[in-house]
């Protein structure tokens, strides 16, 4: 998955301002907070990584983060499969009917995918953690 990101801008846009670049296996694992956050891998029948995402509780909602699809497999609807897994798990774990995420305003393909999945842009009740981003919410 590390090879999917080739610049500081790409890794910061995906992982947030705390991600270090250039990437090393150690820093990547540490910055992902794998031991702290529920993480999911979407794989094919040969166990090749197609996508990755995390979820955690934020503002009493299941919050999705660090969603990414392998660049070689984008545009095939895989994000919906990944999000379905994360949402099913997160709604049960956090006992909530609300799911949220952040998306960068210039990430038009992600914004479109999330809207097609039923998310809408809403006002975030706190200061947004990043500039140029929107808060999206879906209620079940």
From TrEMBL:
Keyword entries, A-Z: Transferase
GO function terms (MF aspect): acyltransferase activity, transferring groups other than amino-acyl groups
Transferase found in the keyword field: yes
Listed SUPFAM superfamilies: Acyl-CoA N-acyltransferases (Nat)
Keyword ATP-binding: no
Residues of the N-acetyltransferase domain: 1-140
Pfam name, any one: Acetyltransf_1
Designated name of the protein: Acetyltransferase (GNAT) family protein
Organism of derivation: Arenicella xantha
């Amino acid at each position: 998955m590390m090879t999917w990101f080739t610049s500081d801008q790409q890794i910061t846009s995906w992982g947030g301002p705390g991600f270090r670049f250039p990437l090393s296996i150690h820093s990547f694992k540490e910055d992902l907070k794998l031991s702290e956050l529920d993480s999911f891998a979407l794989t094919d029948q040969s166990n090749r990584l197609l996508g990755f995402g995390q979820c955690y509780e934020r503002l009493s909602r299941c919050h999705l983060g660090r969603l990414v699809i392998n660049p070689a497999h984008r545009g095939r609807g895989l994000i919906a499969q990944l999000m379905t897994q994360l949402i099913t798990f997160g709604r049960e774990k956090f006992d909530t009917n609300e799911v949220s995420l952040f998306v960068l305003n210039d990430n038009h393909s992600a914004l479109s995918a999330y809207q097609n999945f039923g998310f809408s842009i809403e006002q975030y009740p706190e200061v947004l953690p990043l500039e140029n981003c929107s808060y999206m919410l879906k209620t079940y």
